[in-house]
Amino acid sequence: MKGAGRSSSMRAWVRSLCCLLLLAASVPAARAAEDAHVLVLGRISDDPRAHYDQLKALLDYVVPRMREVGITEGRVLMARDPQQMASYLRRGRVDWVTETASTAVQLQQRADARPLLLTERNGVSRYHTVFFAHRDSPVRDLPGLRGHTLALQSTASTSAYMVPMTTLLDAGLKPEILLGPGDRPAPDRVGYVFARTEANIAVWVQKRMVDAGALSSLDWNDPQRMPPAFKADLQVVHETPAYPRAVELVRDDLPAPVEARLREVLLQAAADPEAGQALHLFFNTSRFLPLDEDSRQALAELRDGVARVRAEVE
Q: Quick one: which of 141, 73, 121, 109 has its CA closest to 302?
């Protein structure tokens, strides 16, 4: 009898657990239905307070122009890293994300996010990575990096980490992380260190603390990050093909009418005087552009490169 009682209790416990799991599974769907009138704009940020106003300004411009598709409210949701943002997208907690190219392709891989538009900032929609060395350095080209040290920014950077890494791998070079700028790699590898800022990359190469550096073409041509006095001591040893500077993405199951209207509003914003301040606050955006074939191809190649870096380097 006691065994039968325990068996009955166990069955009751299992039924209760199943009910709780079914209820938990139904909550996101119910929440999504209740919030169908809300457009949520997301971004990965280590400083949410600073980025909030930049995002909210554009959201406040967009939302009133989307009433015809049922959008009457806008919200901002920050994530601490790509993994958290991918979770938000999969669960329908974020509708629209603005990100750099390498993060955009990671969100494609992890959450099936779809590129919506290119983002042109300060009149630039595409840029590339520049590898450079001191004029006295033995490094003269990409293969010449073997056995030498390379300064990068951080793993969050497209132009100063992900693209340089994919470029090294495509060239048959083997990256090796070092303890610091004074450490040396194995003779058959490229040693890399993180300098944290673009300015530090320039300083480390100019002061011969490392053999070479990599950063975006925008930073290479920016006197604030690459002072002319430093640049005179440096030389370009390799330049990559161009890739999108930034991308707007949407979640995979965003309703088609909402996606279409969002694309339309953003494409028209540059011609609307009322959007001027919002675009300026939105990371100095000058306009949004349709994805052309070159950009799609560049994102596809970057997506493959990111997967390779994850598998072979990290």
A: 109
Mean pLDDT of the chain: 90
Domains and CATH numbers, the chain: 33-125+244-312 (3.40.190.10), 129-240 (3.40.190.10)
114: β partners: 250
pLDDT, tens only, 165-181: 999 999 999 999 999 99
pTM: 0.85
